[in-house]
Specification:
- Helix content is about 35%, strand content about 5%.
- It has helices spanning about 15-20, 30-50, 80-85; strands spanning about 90, 95.
- A two-stranded antiparallel sheet has the order 1-2.
- β1 (about 90) and β2 form a beta hairpin.
- The longest helix is centred in the middle third of the chain and has 22 residues, at about 30-50.
């Protein structure tokens, strides 16, 4: 089934239907506001579709993205005695915590 957009006519988004899918309640003034905004967005997308983009690589970001990573270096961890010095309670060389399940 072809819609108006397939025939070159204006595309209309049913704002009430979309709001219902999102479980949003919109009053009449909100529907009118969002209807205009959505139609404007669709118009901008159509304008982008009319551009000659041959030879332009698709990108996911406007600027190059680069992770700043450091080299993995093996280092000695804290000693057991030093760690246990910070324990409020210790039992058999381990942290002792209050029982929460009876």
């Amino acid at each position: 089934m072809a819609n108006e957009a397939d025939q070159g006519g204006p595309e209309k988004i049913d704002v009430r239907y979309v709001a219902n899918l999102a479980r949003l309640y919109l009053d009449d003034s909100e529907v009118e506001t969002f209807q205009g905004q959505l139609e404007g967005i669709v118009e901008h997308v159509k304008q982008i579709g009319e551009l000659d983009l041959a030879g332009i690589e698709p990108t996911s970001h406007a600027r190059p993205v680069q992770n700043v990573l450091r080299e993995d270096v093996v280092r000695a961890g804290l000693g057991h005695e030093l760690v246990m010095d910070n324990a409020p309670k210790e039992k058999n060389g381990q942290f002792a915590v209050p029982q929460i399940i009876e």
